[in-house]
Design brief:
CATH class: Alpha Beta
Strand content: 25-35%
Structural class: alpha/beta
Strand order of the largest sheet: 5-4-6-7-3-8-9-10-11
CATH superfamily: P-loop containing nucleotide triphosphate hydrolases
CATH architecture: 3-Layer(aba) Sandwich
Order of helices and strands: EEEHEHHEHEHHEHEEEE
Number of strands: 11
CATH topology: Rossmann fold
Number of helices: 7
Helix content: 25-40%
Bound molecules: adenosine-5'-triphosphate, magnesium ion
Length: about 240
C-alpha cells in the first residue's frame, strides 16, 4: 500500500516552521508571492540550504540571475553550502531564451532527472515570465498542472511569483492567480508602508493538509538571512 501520510520538512527559515504546522509538506508545491526586492530569492536560498545541510539534492532554476549572482548572494549571507556543493548536490540552471513551453516540458524534466533517488528541493525563481509568454489561460493551466505534478513526484518545490501593484493590499492580480490556485501552499511576502518606513511581513494564505497561522508576521533580512518574529505584531 502507498504511504500517503504527511511528512514535514523544515523550511530553513528561523521562526517559520512554527507558523506552518512544523514545516512544509514533503512532495508539495509552495508558491512564494511578493513584491520586487522583498526577499523571495533569499527565502528560496534558505530553503535549499536546509536541504544541502541534510545531504539532499538542491536545484535552483533561475530565470533572472546567473550562477555568479546567486553565489555572491549566498556568500554575503554566509551560506557556504552552495559553493561547497556546487555540481554535486547543488545544481544550478539559468533558464535563458523565451521558449518556456519547451523548457517546462523537455529541458526541465531532463535537468531534474539528475536527482538520482535523493530527496530533492527545487526552486523556480521567478516563474512570472512564463505568464508573459503563455497568454492562453487554458494552456497555462494545463502546463502548470503538469509541471506541478512532476515537481511533486520529485520532491518539494518553491515557485516564486512577483507581485505588482499596490504594495499595501493583499489582492491578487488576475493573470498571476493560476499558480496560487494550483499550488499546495501560498506564502505572501508583503511590504507594508507605515508613515515613514517599510516593514516586511510574511503570511500564509493557504496550506493544504495543515493547520497554519492566519497572522501577518514581521520579518527582517539580516546579514545571515530572513528571521521571522512569530509573536510580534506588524507595527
Ligand atoms: N547581505 C544582506 N544583508 C542584509 N539584507 C540583505 C542582504 N542581501 C540582501 N538584503 C536585502 O534583501 C533584499 C533582496 O532580497 P531578494 O533578492 O531575496 O529579493 P527578491 O524578492 O528576490 O527580489 P527580486 O524581485 O529583485 O527578485 C534587498 O533589497 C535587501 O533589502
Ligand atoms: Mg529574486
Amino acid at each position: 500500500m502507498v504511504d500517503q501520510s504527511v511528512v514535514r520538512i523544515s523550511s530553513g527559515i528561523p521562526g517559520f516552521d512554527a507558523l506552518i504546522g512544523g514545516g512544509f509538506v514533503r512532495n508539495s508545491v509552495v508558491v512564494v508571492y511578493g513584491s520586487p526586492g522583498v526577499g523571495k530569492s533569499i527565502f528560496s536560498l534558505q530553503f535549499l540550504r536546509e536541504g544541502l545541510k541534510n545531504g539532499e539534492k538542491a536545484f535552483y532554476i533561475s530565470l533572472e540571475q546567473d550562477l555568479d549572482s546567486i553565489l555572491k548572494q549566498a556568500d554575503a549571507l554566509g551560506f557556504v553550502e552552495f559553493r561547497k556543493e556546487l555540481n554535486s548536490n547543488f545544481v544550478f540552471t539559468k533558464m535563458t531564451g523565451h521558449d518556456f513551453k519547451a523548457f517546462l516540458s523537455i529541458d526541465l524534466p531532463k535537468i531534474l532527472s539528475e536527482r538520482a533517488g535523493k530527496e530533492a528541493r527545487i526552486v523556480i525563481d521567478p516563474l512570472t515570465p512564463l505568464f508573459w509568454e503563455i497568454r492562453d489561460v487554458a494552456l497555462q493551466r494545463t502546463m502548470l498542472e503538469n509541471v506541478f505534478n512532476l515537481f511533486r513526484s520529485l520532491g518539494t518545490t518553491i515557485i516564486t511569483i512577483e507581485k505588482y501593484g499596490n504594495i499595501n493590499t493583499l489582492e491578487l492580480s488576475e493573470d498571476m492567480a493560476m499558480p496560487l490556485y494550483l499550488g499546495d501552499t501560498v506564502v505572501l511576502i508583503s511590504l507594508l508602508f507605515n508613515q515613514n518606513f517599510y516593514q516586511t511581513a510574511v503570511s500564509v494564505l493557504k496550506m493544504r493538509f495543515s493547520q497554519h497561522s492566519a497572522g501577518l508576521h514581521p520579518f527582517e533580512i539580516t546579514s545571515n538571512g530572513i528571521h521571522i518574529f512569530q509573536d510580534q505584531p506588524v507595527f
